[in-house]
Design a protein that fits this description.
alpha/beta, 8 strands, 46% helix, globular, Alpha/beta hydrolase, hydrolase activity, hydrolase, AB_hydrolase_1
């Protein structure tokens, strides 16, 4: 679970609902598209707030930055049907978001964790809208064995108790009391509220994807061989091995950046350094 470094938006950022051909999506937006626009897609149990620390530095670098809640995630509406949350459906949403942004300049796409699986599915479906692809703390396929076990347990709990999200939240937090004790009251309120607002079927459907997604890197190479790509990660990662991300970058012919002092969420743990790495990649891709 990613935790934002703070909960307040920069003074020049705004929150609104982005209207698309596939419905409305809650977004945070900052900056003007001097050098381009960036669409940021969050991970499992996450939200647009996971990128809040990156808005200001990326805007200052000359980018319009749009961080989005996927369908059924936090403040974006979504149906109570698991079939609405396959990677293919979520990828179609990303393409609709890209179309709705109407970016005049280059449109850069980034996905964190589960969001990485979503955005690569979108690019395999249609790479045309995107100038670059960045994959942050995500792997070539399903999560590692330990995380598969944890995710299976969560999916089973959601299937059995999805109408009692507060009880599932309490059980999750009880498993890691030290982590819960480290959160401020404001952060606790936000994390609980985000969990309760997320549609249970979104967590079930995307949880199944994390458990079972095959390696689709060859598809990505075949469909978008010339698209500039970047793989970013922390120094260590409990969800996908860093070595798997190293290999994924090699297979993609992608740039590779490791953000010092971070694990699974460099976007939240070291947002300034992560933003700097992205801005450098986007600038180099434009030359």
């Amino acid at each position: 679970m990613s935790k934002p470094p703070r909960l307040t938006l920069p003074s020049d950022a705004r929150a609104y609902l982005l209207a698309t051909a596939r419905g409305e999506f809650a977004v945070h937006e900052a900056g003007a598209p001097v050098r381009g626009t960036a669409l940021l897609v969050p991970g499992y149990t996450g939200s647009k707030e996971d990128f809040i620390g990156m808005l200001e530095p990326l805007a200052a670098a000359g980018y319009r930055v749009v961080a989005v809640d996927g369908r059924g995630q936090h403040e974006s509406p979504g149906p109570r049907e698991e079939s609405a949350y396959t990677l293919e459906e979520l990828a179609r949403d990303v393409l609709a978001q890209a179309g709705a942004l109407g970016a005049a300049g280059p449109l850069h796409l980034l996905g964190h964790s589960l969001g990485g699986l979503v955005v690569r599915t979108a690019v395999v479906r249609d790479p045309a809208p995107f100038a670059t692809l960045a994959l942050l703390s995500t792997g070539p396929g399903a999560v590692c064995e330990d995380q598969r076990g944890r995710t299976k347990l969560l999916v089973a709990a959601l299937e059995a108790m999805g109408d009692d999200m507060p009880a599932i939240w309490a059980a999750m937090r009880a498993q890691d009391p030290r982590d819960a004790a480290a959160d401020s009251p404001e952060m606790l309120e936000f994390l609980r509220g985000r969990w309760l607002a997320t549609v249970p079927e979104q967590l079930i459907g995307t949880g199944r994807a994390l458990i079972s997604e095959p390696d689709r890197i060859d598809d990505l190479v075949r469909v978008a061989p010339e698209l500039p790509k970047l793989v970013l990660s922390g120094v260590s990662d409990p969800v996908w091995p860093v070595s798997a991300m190293d290999d994924m970058a090699r297979r993609l012919g992608a740039g590779r950046v490791v953000i010092p002092g971070t694990e699974h969420s460099p976007n939240a743990e070291e947002p300034a350094a992560t933003a700097a790495a992205l801005a450098a990649f986007w600038e180099a891709s434009a030359r």
